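ligand=heme C
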Amino acid sequence: MRSVKRGFRRLSILPGMLVPLLLTGCEQDMADQPKYEPLEAAAIFPNDQSARPLVEGTVARDTVIEPRPARPPLPMTEAVLKRGRERYDIYCAPCHGRAGDGEGMIPERGFPRPPSYHTDRLRNAPDSHYYDVITNGFGVMFSYANRVAPEDRWAIVAYIRALQLSQHATSDDVREAGLEDKLREAK
Ligand code: HEC
């Protein structure tokens, strides 16, 4: 009686051995899925690229979409303009040029040339447009949201406004600012 029991016990090991065997079979199927490996060529796409570009407007799951304050929270003081110039020269001038004319060093080397800030369209664009371009990027220009803090974005906008004025001031502006003497001296 005892030996019969032992025999059964031995048999009951069998399914235990079968299951892992079956699972290995499955694993093989999963490895051979009909999918493209990273960087694998795919004749059905242009340039044989199986890696597809992100759909326009794709936002990463953890992206923080910051609400934009309705009005620039910074007063136009000399300190703000100085800060704006410093940040502008670091983050924007390499492409937009120190004068904002789009003649930066990077476009010289082949990056698409940005438009000059001294066109009617950009002169008339609201401050919020500049803030949004820095925050979200624009066309081929990427976002500077993770490099330029919101306060500094407004400081840069203030400085761009000063740049625009510097290239487009009327004699009325000069008179209002009480700078006629300086202008005469410069002539
Ligand atoms: C790497 C180069 C590069 C840098 C750096 C850069 N930009 Fe640009 N920017 C561009 C290009 C190129 C365009 C034109 C994009 C397009 O039309 O596709 C552009 C466009 C713009 C425009 C015009 C948008 C319009 O309405 O036509 C503004 C404003 C602007 N950038 C502001 C900034 C500011 C402010 C900074 C610094 C925080 C900055 N950019 C940094 C390359 C750059």
